[in-house]
Design goal:
Multidrug-efflux Transporter Regulator, Chain: A, Domain 2; alpha+beta; three-stranded antiparallel beta sheet; globular; 3 helices
């Protein structure tokens, strides 16, 4: 498994996207943002970038 230090926490993702943490959790639940549950939800930085790129294409 990849190094867990590479993963971002929900608060880190929220700060990067300019969203509140609860909204990030909703995006994960709706499967609009990929995440893995390792104790708590974790998101790979490349998945955050993919989400940003996807949103720009709308």
């Amino acid at each position: 498994m990849e190094d867990l230090k590479q993963y971002l926490t929900i608060p880190q993702v929220a700060e990067k996207l300019g969203f509140c943490p609860d909204w990030v959790r909703i995006l994960i639940k709706k499967k609009q943002l990929r995440a893995v549950k390792i104790g708590q939800w974790k998101v790979r930085p490349e998945d955050v970038e993919a989400f940003i790129k996807m949103r720009r294409n709308y």
